[in-house]
Fold each of these.
Amino acid sequence: MGNDDVAGGEDAVRLEAVNKWYGHFHVLRDIHLAVGKGQKVVVCGPSGSGKSTMIRCINRLEEHQEGRIVVEGTEVCPDVRKIHAVRSKVGMVFQNFNLFPHLSVLDNLTLGPVLAQGMRKAEAEQRAHELLERVRIPEQARKYPGQLSGGQQQRVAIARALMLRPRVMLFDEPTSALDPEMIREVLDVMTELAEAGMTMICVTHEMGFARKVADLVVFMDAGEIIEASPPAEFFSSPRNDRTKLFLSQILH
Amino acid sequence: MSEWPPDCAPAGQAPSTRLPPAVRTGWVERLRRSFFDGPASSLLTLGLLWALFVTIPSLVDWAIVKAVWRAADPEACVAAQGACWAVVAEKHRVMLFGTFPYEEQWRGMLVVALIVALFVASAILRPLASRLAAMWVAGMAVVLVLMLGGVLGLKPVETHQWSGLPLTLIMFVGTIAGGIPLGVLLALGRRSSMPIIKGLCVGFIEIVRGLPLVTVLFMASLMIPLFMPSGFSFDKFLRAQLAMTLFFAAYAAEIVRGGLQAIDRGQFEAADAIGLGYRQKMTRVVLPQVARIVLPSMINEIIRAFKNTTFVGIIGLFDVLRATSAAMQDPLWVKFSIEAYLFVFLLYFVFCYAMSKYSRSIEDRLTVRH
């Protein structure tokens, strides 16, 4: 599913020389990454390599200190309105789902569009039902997150992120907190989303997913992008020694 | 996904039909388990039964059998062996309404009834938060009209004449209604990234928490007038109300802060990610969850605030306890102060116990949801 229409327009997400420190600890070092519209990028690397931090900078959950991040033509900067604009274009799915436990599934979905975008309640609910249908849990709309399995919760979280009609979806280790038998149902939804042409940046260790869906696999270590190449090349002939070591550890 | 390793394949057997082992039931068994479960338990049960056997009959004898319920003059009580509840019948107007003008005390009674009705309605009807607030605002507006007078043909009553149970209840409702929102703001301010706001909130909370309530009341009562321009007097009731509210807010703020710390960072991030602003994030995502967490400790603090209203007696306001002690200045009845105070204690207990039960019912309702 080569969806390389990068040449057709500007990049959906572009990171230029991005640097970030936690205190004196240099978490992101000179990150350059361009993600074209409709492209799927899988980011992998050992824990603590800065991959989560990188994608969290894209919707300003973390601040970068140097360099530029541009999302669909809007630069991510301290201006509150710009941040709001970027967040309305970017959906995010977290490792621990982060659904709002005091709200029903339906309210979890409609809260953002109704409050942040002024969508009418009825319209938001209709869209929520459509999306729940799409992630295959239409019957759970009235339940509370605590009554759902992990896999169901993560699919609700994906639907919630899609409510705002984002141009880009960020996934921060979406299957790491799931029991093995539930990983598949979440990956299936993500694969469908990819096939529908969504731009996706996905931090994951699901290499099967990367092989199947990704246009580009990015390997990070110690805050740097060590290697970025299409999956066929990445898995068959990694160039860097650190990449080889990581792959040997993760692909048994 | 589809192939299972042979030894992991789901078993094709029918589900087990074995029942759990039988458990002995019945009231004899329950009695044995609750009261005679081993020698220590049996001994304790017997000891307590003996203690009750010794105390209950004499207590009943004093409080009910030999008690005097009605008497025009205290001589009848002196002659009797039991409790003199007649003192309550005789002095209840002063105890409950203190220095409120005698002919107007029906207004005080109405105020008490209205506030109690508001509590009961809140507990039974379980209205939405917005309706609850509207109900209380309307109810308290009526309360103020009744207490202040000056309109609708009601005789004006100065706040320094407010006293007794209406004073206690109004002071309490005012303290909670002002203190909780202020406490939430202080707690949010304490977590603010803006240093001046944070500093002010931390300073306020730590200073107030470092002072006894009595000191805060004295400061409000004696120092605020010093700062006021001459000729401008700041009502004594309002000064006490302000002091009580600020004192309560400082403690409420720390309770709310604890609740805020218990909320997972992911909740804030998810709210950010779906584009909510700070206010929306707090009011729709974070604070509703905080409310659930802090409810038991907040109710604890609220009950304490109710009992703290007795402190306003120190700066010369006649709350129900102070009004009772004033009523007991009467040399004819002073011997029966114990009965009068027992009545007041009962009054406090009923209010506090009702609040405690109400909070339990809210907790149960909230935990059912998820």
Amino acid sequence: MTDQRQIIKDCLRGKIIAQRALYEAYAEPMMGVCYRYTKSVQDAEDVLQEGFMRVFTHLHQFREEGELGGWIRRIMVNTSINYLKKNIHYRNEMVFTEPSMHPVLEATPEITLQAKEIASLIRQLPTGYQTVFNLHAVEGYTHVEIGKILGISENTSRSQYMRARNLLCDWIKKWDENTKSENYAR
Amino acid sequence: MPDNTFENKLNQQMGDFRFTPSEAVWQKLETDLRKRNKRRWAIIWFISGLVVLSAGLYFYSQLTIPEAFNSITQNSGKSINTENNTADGNNSTPPLKGNNNDEVYARNGQSSTEETGTTVKPETLKIPELKNQSEITVNQQQKIDKQGKSQKGKIEIAQSDEYNVAESEKTGEKTKLTADTKDTDSENFKRKSAPQKVFGKDSANPAITMHNDDPAVSSLLIGGLQNVNDSAISTRNELKIETKKRAITFGVRIDAGRSANSESAFEQSKSADLSTGPTSGGSPSYVYPYSQEPSFGWSLGIWMRKPLNPRISLLAGLAYQQYRTKTSVGTQGQGGLVLNNGVRDVMVDQYYSQGNLETYQNRYHLLSLPVEIAIQLNKGSKLPISWQLGLAPGWMISSNSLFKAKDSSGILYSDKGMFNRFQLGLQTGFSFRLFRNSRNALELGPVFQYMLTPAFKNQINYKGHLSFAGLRADWTLFTLKPRQR
């Protein structure tokens, strides 16, 4: 804790060594966050760089009441969403249609996959689904909050999430079946 | 009851998910950070340099003025000629005879007697070794009364167009150079006439008293006394030099008053139309009423002033201004929120809902370079009143002012990208100069400033123009005089 305080102080003084230390401490988990929201590693790295720049610029606003990791994570999520909205490639894919009726929740499979495998499945979702799913299932935002963040209604967010969840469950089931059949073949 | 097992498991696994970025990310980040640090240091060095330069100029002025006075004291104490035979042979004007046969020699081109006028009692510098007093007064005022008793015993050399020189008066052991009355031998001089020479006479030890009511005039006196050393005063030439080279004064400025951010009349009417409700087409064009109430504002700066002529001067400076306004807000929200400000989507961490739960202070930090003309309105010298008018181009360093989201949420949030950084202000005011005889004069008066540039960018529904009305205090720190020939 004392080390972290010292690092923050040195970062605020503009010491590159301290900034490097902070970056190394949080780069990997934050890259994981950026990776989930984007479609390519290159994009994820761009978001990570922009996010850390914002971290160092606004570090003086960090109150030590909370956890630094959580604060940085929130900045990374915000930067990721901003990146999606700015980047024309993602923006065109983020089309949210008003739901006519809610999809039915399918049976939940047991998750036997590793984190990286789940992350790569999430990234295969359409960008709109992917964003809503990440914000709700992983980050824990409510649909009201997601609605405000993305400029959509609460119902749209809920509907998008259901579709994303059903799709992901379907893929997880297929993945499990494939794995089982491969094991059986061996 | 929804099944959250899936979400919980997913959350656990994703919470620990890590992915190693390439080294190129840090390299790019490091380059950006170094650039940012350089920019920050450049600002720090610039401000430090400005402070050091100001301090240096101040101390330089403090050192040079006493040296000049020392040299006068030494010269005058040794060599002022008080002999009776000091009449200049070249004078075309005969000596003026006073009551005690002390003589004042002067040359005059045109004579003009003024019966009225006021004399400000100046401060006196005495040379202690000398017992008897010969007094020379240098006065800045336009006209000098010859008859007033207070002028008796002095020779007054006005910096203005007209002045009088009279004969000296001897009373007992005291010898004085005296302003003459109308019915005695007196002469009035115009500065632009032929050079004048003044000699005091006493066989005993004369004392010389210099009346100096302005630092700028003291340099005049320096020139005059040095010429006394050579048995002749050529004040005319000195006056000419002083008229051409005017001293530059430096000082600090403090403003305090009420600052506001209001819409211009045109924009008010436009927003009033919009805020009447949704349009007939049903599109969400509703603009919620939004206002910022005036609050305390202040500014601090440094300035330099150069007189263009005796009544008009030019002032330039550097000032930091902090204008504040108040906005009523509801509850505070935390967490990432992406809002559309009419131009682009912005992400906000802190925001407020509409309401009257608490008052939020909007702060605007500006750095400006005011340039203004000051015109002295009255001829009187007791309380000079000036009118100031000028422009203040500035840069909005930062602001935490709240905007209203353009969507129907009506959320109030801060967006640094929506400010017009460049601000052009128009300012005017009046000032009353107090302690004008002091080296550190104080000017007080009301001031009004209006920013011609809108505070917010055009696309937002509330542009807002910053304004300020309050009291201004200008305190003269020091004066840099032009070099003597």
